[in-house]
């Protein structure tokens, strides 16, 4: 089992202990569905706002498993945070999904970008995160966004064909800089 899988299993255990539902997200979901593996250095999951509050109240559990907080990003509104953890040089990114009408949205934070591109708003159909689909991976059942293949198309376009030039802060099809974060 690779280090990404070890980290994902540990995160599953911790979030189970504190009763926080989550789904595989972004590149993690893409790798699981397309390649039946994980990126060994980066794991992405999604939680709701209440889930993030529980996570932050129980950070000692993550410490006990050897994770340390790498970065916590929060929009000034208090919405759409991202917690980045690290263990053995490998990252786990936890994204909050927020809802507005029939849209779900989250933010990525590029702290090396110019200020006007620091907050990267990702906007999706809300149906992907109002309920879960399921996938079997390494003998376990995992939550994934509802209609996961459609979700991946929303994010990546042609997600079945690897793109060696794809950049997380530039290329997602769901980035919408006109989205009003309020």
Give a nutshell description of this structure.
The protein has 182 residues and is an alpha+beta fold. It is built from 6 helices and 10 strands, in the order H-E-H-E-H-H-E-E-E-E-E-E-H-E-E-H. It has a domain at 3-98 and 126-156: 2-Layer Sandwich (Beta Polymerase, domain 2).
Topology, pairings included?
Layout: H1 3-17, E1 23-24, H2 26-35, E2 42-47, H3 49-57, H4 59-64, E3 68-73, E4 82-87, E5 90-96, E6 98-100, E7 103-109, E8 119-125, H5 127-130, E9 132-137, E10 140-145, H6 148-156
Parallel strand pairs: 2-5
Antiparallel strand pairs: 1-2, 3-4, 4-5, 6-7, 7-8, 9-10
Features:
182 residues, alpha+beta, 31% strand, 6 helices, Beta Polymerase, domain 2, globular, 10 strands, three-stranded antiparallel sheet, five-stranded mixed sheet
Account of the protein in words:
By secondary structure, the chain is α+β, with helices and mostly antiparallel strands. The chain has a domain at 3-98 and 126-156: 2-Layer Sandwich (Beta Polymerase, domain 2), CATH 3.30.460. The chain is built from six helices and ten strands, in the order αβαβααββββββαββα. It has a five-stranded mixed sheet. The longest helix is centred in the first third of the chain and has 15 residues, at 3-17.
What CATH architecture label of one domain applies? 2-Layer Sandwich
Distance between the termini: 42 Å
Strands of the biggest beta sheet: in what spatial order?
A: 1-2-5-4-3
Overall radius of gyration: 15 Å
- Total beta-strand segments: 10
The low-confidence runs, each spanning 5 or more residues with pLDDT under 50, are none
């Amino acid at each position: 089992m690779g280090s990404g899988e070890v980290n994902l299993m540990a995160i599953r255990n911790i979030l189970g202990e504190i009763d926080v539902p989550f789904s595989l997200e972004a590149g993690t979901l893409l790798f699981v569905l397309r390649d039946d593996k994980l990126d060994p250095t980066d794991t992405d999951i999604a939680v709701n706002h209440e889930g993030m509050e529980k996570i932050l109240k129980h950070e000692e559990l993550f410490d006990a498993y050897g994770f340390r907080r790498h970065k916590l990003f929060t929009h000034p509104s208090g919405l759409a945070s991202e917690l980045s953890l690290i263990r053995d040089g490998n990252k786990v990114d936890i994204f909050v999904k927020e809802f507005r009408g029939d849209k779900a949205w989250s933010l990525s934070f590029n702290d090396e970008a110019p200020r006007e591109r620091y907050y990267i708003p990702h906007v999706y159909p809300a149906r992907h995160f109002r309920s879960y689909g399921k996938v079997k991976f390494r003998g376990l059942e995992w939550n994934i966004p509802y209609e996961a293949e459609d979700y991946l198309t929303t994010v990546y376009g042609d997600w079945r064909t690897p793109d060696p030039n794809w950049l997380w802060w530039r290329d997602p099809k769901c980035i919408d800089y006109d989205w009003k974060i309020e």
